[in-house]
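Data availability (excerpt). The following record was deposited with the supplementary files.
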Amino acid sequence: MQRRGEKVSGTKAELVARLEEAVNQDTQYDNLTVDQLQEELKKRNETISGTKDELITRLKDNDKASHKYNDMTVEELHDELEKRGQKVSGRKQELIDRLKSHDEFTDKYNAMTVDQIHEELKKVNLPVSGNKDELIERLRNAPPAKYEDMTMDQLHDELERRYVKVSGRKQELIDRLKNYDNDKNTKYFDMTVDDLQGELQKINESTQGNKDELIQRLRAHDLLNNKQYDELTVEQLHDELQKRGEKVTGNKQELIERLQEDDNMNALSEQEIKTKLMAEGLSVQGTKAELLRRLKDAPRSYDEMTVEQLHDELEKRGEKVSGNKDELIERLKQSKAAIGKRNQPETRSMDDNSSEPATKEAKTE
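Predicted structure:
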């Protein structure tokens, strides 16, 4: 058990079960193809480069680390991360992944000589002074040349720096970063503060704040223009909804749906707005902006309204407010139908033109 890096505590039955599981794991990985091994490593957010033996070793090391940390409480995981100077935020699995990643990195470079570590540091133009632990820590904090070599935490940091969402598996994060690098928004990072403020002035946005805040504002504007609401933060969604005079309550998906519904409303023609208002039994008088606001403020369903809201609607229409909820709803529906009928444009056929004169002739007779 010790040779395999397994725990040796527990009853005989527990030790036997643990050993059998380890043996089965060994056999399982040997029978997999390279593609299958790489797919399994992807699921665990591990590097997929190397020979088949290296991939198997990486999976076995991952299994050992998982067993070690899975038995810990969240508090114990926090303690381990603090000892290593690592972030302690996130769910339990994220904490475990962070510890495993840290351990793998440390094991990799501890196996190297100081001269070999010096060579690695020179490749990324970093100083080579200090003891071995300091050199390893310097390498750990160095930004990798490729996204594929980054840890999940490093990918998250890169995405946050670009104000892009950080959820998803490792390959999704990598793809998101690559897509962003190819996107026109990358230009903002190369601009001076004066240039960024100039861009913001063109779109009538605030020019206050540091460079990161200015970039964030421009990025949000571009995402809004392209209706990429899912890429915005909740705070940015709140800001946009407030500008439009819309509610800001609800989770992120509800905020996005509210913006999309508002977009659909804004795309309506004036005649389409009037048709919808007539169907709701509402006035069709006013400018397009006033009509649109009236339509947006219109209740979607009387059944969803409180008795107090029903009273308010009836008072606006000069109707009685007595009765139970069902009676109030029925009264509103009748009022709505009456207003809708009054709003219908008068249509008369050619034959109708003779009706008025005929009446007059009848009177003279």
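Summary of structural features: Residues 162-266 form one domain.
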